[in-house]
Automatic annotation (TrEMBL), chain A:
Principal EC category: oxidoreductase
Protein's gene: msrP
Domain of life: Bacteria
Keywords: Metal-binding, Molybdenum, Oxidoreductase, Signal
Catalytic activities: L-methionyl-[protein] + a quinone + H2O = L-methionyl-(S)-S-oxide-[protein] + a quinol; L-methionyl-[protein] + a quinone + H2O = L-methionyl-(R)-S-oxide-[protein] + a quinol
Enzyme Commission number(s): 1.8.5.-
Protein name as annotated: Protein-methionine-sulfoxide reductase catalytic subunit MsrP
Cofactor(s) listed in the protein's UniProt record: Mo-molybdopterin
Gene3D superfamilies for this protein: Oxidoreductase, molybdopterin-binding domain (3.90.420.10)
Coiled-coil parts of chain: none
UniProtKB/TrEMBL annotation, chain B:
Keyword Membrane: yes
Protein name: Uncharacterized protein
Segments passing through the bilayer: 58-81
Keyword tags: Membrane, Transmembrane, Transmembrane helix
The organism of origin for this protein: Neoroseomonas soli
Length: 312, 89
């Protein structure tokens, strides 16, 4: 029986792209050429367009990327419910038009249109780990730009010490807002030093596509050394202030969710261990790492803050 | 007579709550003021471990009703009970 050794470029038949999809892609490429000829046309028609982005190889995930289907169908987004299957409901949140106000203690407060940000910001792709406070994690190729690049546009005053992120609150499409007793809108925040760290990333896409609403589209913040709830979704306002903000979860359950919320496997949540995490899409559990493995980039931010609750 | 008295007490409580908290003050808001974490845990438990529709279809309508309505409903219940037991109400 002859032994056939596959050549390097050969792939299994099951991985071959169906002909219909190839033909569809050619049509899409044709449409793309038209879009290049008329920049902004697609955006003007309401279809979000993500510019091409080079991958930043400085931040190595060290694990396989989570399947897109897993990352986009298992979501925390309380405005749509406290369960994980909110992805369909989130589609009702309009992604265009969308603006982000950046104001407060800045020299030049501005309101940015999302498509203007996509055109003017230094867009790149970064593969980050995301560690949820609920002890599961995923690895996602995010598209976006450093938060510092956005803040440079408004020139923060020297007196600004904190950055506050405010999530959209749209009662007509967000059933969670019927529970008026919660302190809506969802607020999160960080220090100006944390905001200036290169890891702080304004995310506008995932898996090479515009960021899905259920993941926080059209724009969210992701600071991968912190627990996931610190990453405000669908941001409409960023405020620079000299007052430490009290975030949404800190207001509801201050014993469990604090301002800093840096990942630390040694400090358990009051109701469960943080020593390990379930890899989303599998039953595998892996050890959790201090600062979610990003300590070399961020540990210096916390020098002299030993008296703070850095890990909750 | 006892059941009717209890009913009147509940009606009185409803009126007092209406004046004290406002006629649109929701039950969920009142519960949240007492213990924010408990209401959140209840929601998570129902939506994640039973079914989201139970929370949205049963709990939310219940929690968004005006707080004065709850003692009113209790009062009506006792009033009906008293009328079903003639001579002993």
């Amino acid at each position: 029986m002859p032994i056939r050794i596959p050549r390097g470029w050969e792939i299994p038949e099951a991985q071959v792209t169906p002909e219909a999809l190839v033909a569809g892609r050619r049509k899409a490429l044709g449409l793309g050429a038209g879009l290049l000829a008329a920049p902004g046309l697609a955006a003007a028609q309401g279809a979000p367009v993500l510019p091409p982005a080079m991958r930043n190889t400085r931040y190595v995930p060290g694990r396989d990327i989570t399947a897109e289907r897993e990352a986009t169908t298992f979501n925390n987004y309380y405005e749509f419910g406290s369960h994980k299957t909110i992805s369909q409901a989130a589609q009702r949140l309009p992604q265009r038009p969308w603006t982000v106000k950046v104001e407060g203690m800045v020299e030049a407060p501005r309101e940015f249109g999302i498509d203007d940000l996509l055109r003017t910001m230094p867009i790149e792709e970064r593969v980050y780990r995301l560690r949820c406070v609920e002890a599961w994690s995923m690895v996602v190729p995010w598209t976006g730009f450093p938060l510092s690049a956005l803040l440079e546009q408004v020139k923060p005053l020297a007196s600004a010490r904190f950055v506050v992120f405010e999530t959209a609150a749209v009662p007509s499409v967000m059933p969670g807002l019927r529970q008026s007793w919660y302190p809506w809108p969802y607020i999160e925040g960080c220090t100006i030093a944390e905001a200036g760290n290169d890891l702080s990333f304004m995310v506008v896409g995932a898996y090479g596509k515009p960021l899905p609403a259920q993941n926080g589209g059209p724009i969210r913040i992701h600071q991968p050394w912190k627990y996931g709830f610190k990453g405000g979704k669908s941001i409409v306002r960023i405020t620079l202030t000299d007052r430490r903000p009290v975030s949404f979860w800190e207001r509801i359950q201050p014993q469990e969710y604090g301002f800093w919320a840096n990942v630390n496997p040694e400090v358990p949540h009051p109701r469960w261990s943080q020593a390990s995490e379930r890899v989303l899409g599998s039953n595998e559990r892996i050890p959790t790492r201090l600062f979610n493995g990003y300590g070399e980039f961020v540990a210096g931010l916390y020098t002299g803050l030993q008296n703070e609750r850095l890990w909750a | 007579m006892i059941l009717r008295t209890i009913a009147l007490l509940f009606f009185g409580l409803a009126v007092a709550l209406g004046f004290a908290l406002g006629w649109g003050y929701e039950l969920g808001t009142a519960m949240y003021k007492v213990n924010p974490a408990a209401l959140n845990s209840l929601q998570v438990g129902v939506q994640r471990y039973l079914a989201p529709v139970i929370w949205d279809g049963l709990f939310v309508p219940f929690l968004t009703m005006p707080v004065w309505l709850l003692p009113t409903l209790f009062g009506l219940g006792f009033m009906i009970a008293s009328s079903m037991r003639p001579g002993r109400g």
